[in-house]
Design brief:
Order of helices and strands: EHEHHEEEHEHEHEHHHEEEEHHEHEHEHH
Number of helices: 15
Oligomer: single chain
Helix content: 25-40%
Number of strands: 15
Strand content: 15-25%
Radius of gyration: 24 Å
Structural class: alpha/beta
């Protein structure tokens, strides 16, 4: 938090902190950035950058008044995405930016900054990060980066972490052992939460390539259920719609203690069956699949516009699927690891795809699955990312005591 006060680091232009999740990076960096900027500058402008402004507020700025209570006073103008901070007789302005895509760099053009903090820098486009850095022209300005690891070919790893000394930056690697707020029991919980490449990155803090089976934590003996329990919870259908590629319906029902069961699947491959069905035929098949009942919602990739329109005409409630591939894979892996995602024994195509779904080793440094044996996998991911992730987010936001 106070590296910038130490004489041996006075000449450094910034700091990079990477490593495991829950290792204290965000708290250390946010507090350090705020104390540095308020002690060293008066009446200047700074940028606080996250993947989105919402995530930045949730992870950083909403907690700063609590962390710095009695030291700084905060005034936020949400309509301007600006926070003014006061400490003794000093004040500075902090502008919030979301670097979610390649077009985001335009948001920060034209500003003059005395410093910038990137929360989860590896999730932001290179164009956005470099545009923000180019704005730091005030004498004494510095760069602050924190992130969790991605693949070893990621642009941030190759251009900034591997070249930290060349770029005159202090580099610190964090592990969960660096967070005194985590008890040994909580550390063990996190260590058991992830598997495969996500364990190497999020628990061990390594910049490693994704390779091999994606869901290597999937065990048919553990995750396939011969006899379903009595289920009385909510029901959803997730759909991966194809033309020549297979179309998949998965029916989900809630069990006990946060578990969800895929109780049956529908799978039709126009290529294998040598006949492509129409939207109307697929809608008829969905009616038959549900045996005349109505789920709470049907989750469909928004690109299947004509099929969605037909289902709405037939009275189905539709939810557009969240199609963030890597985030969905990670969330699905966590639920499998926890034993909260289970499948009826009759879901034979889903079982087959879990065992054959692999990373693309020719991905040119990008983490992506091989686009084969992925139709049930996409339907599983749509359900997890669209229904379960949003449900969990609502629970986290629920006011205390409710």
């Amino acid at each position: 938090m106070t590296w910038w006060k130490q004489e041996r680091f006075h000449s450094y232009d910034g700091i990079i902190c990477d490593g495991s999740v829950r290792s204290g990076k965000t708290v250390s960096m946010a507090l350090g950035f705020m104390l540095w900027s308020m002690e060293c500058f008066q009446g200047q402008r700074f940028a606080l950058c996250g993947k989105t402004i919402e995530s930045l507020r949730r992870n950083v700025t909403a907690l700063l008044p609590q962390w710095l209570e009695g030291i700084c006073r905060f005034e936020e103008r949400r309509s301007e995405n600006r926070i003014t901070v006061y400490m003794d007789d000093r004040h500075n302005d902090y502008y919030l930016f979301g670097g979610k895509d390649e077009g985001s760099y335009a948001l920060i053009q034209g500003m003059t900054l005395a410093g910038v903090l990137f929360d989860e820098a590896a999730l932001m486009p290179r164009s956005f990060v470099e545009q923000a850095l180019a704005r730091c022209s005030v004498e004494g300005s510095r760069f602050w980066f924190n992130c969790n690891p991605e693949g070893p070919e990621h642009w941030f790893y190759r251009n900034w972490i591997c070249r930290a000394g060349e770029r005159n930056l202090l580099y610190l690697h964090f592990t969960m052992q660096d967070n005194p707020a985590l008890s040994p029991a909580i550390r063990r919980r996190y260590e058991g939460l992830y598997a495969g490449v996500f364990r190497q990155r999020y628990v061990l803090g390594l910049w490693v390539a994704a390779q091999g089976q994606i869901y290597d934590m999937f065990d048919p003996n553990r995750h396939m259920v011969r006899q379903l329990p009595a289920l009385g919870g909510e029901r959803y259908v997730s759909v991966d719609y194809g033309t020549q590629n297979p179309t998949v319906f998965l029916l989900w029902q809630q069990g006990e203690q946060g578990s969800w069961y895929c109780v049956k699947e529908y799978y039709w491959s126009g290529r294998e069956q040598m006949r492509q069905k129409t939207d109307g035929e697929y809608a008829d098949d969905l009616d038959a699949f549900l045996e005349g009942t109505r789920p709470r919602a049907v989750v469909v990739d928004p690109s299947a516009a004509s099929f969605i329109a037909l289902l709405r005409q037939r009275g189905y409630a539709i939810q557009g699927a969240d199609n963030q591939v890597l985030t969905g894979i990670r969330r699905t892996g966590e639920l499998l690891q926890e034993g909260k995602l289970l499948f009826a024994e009759g879901c034979v195509n889903t079982r087959r795809e879990f065992l054959s779904y692999v990373w693309d080793e020719s991905g040119g440094g990008q983490d992506r699955p091989v686009k084969e044996n992925d139709h049930c996998m996409d339907a599983v991911r749509y359900f997890v990312s669209t229904v379960l992730a949003r449900t969990q987010a609502r629970v986290r936001k629920r006011p205390k005591g409710l």
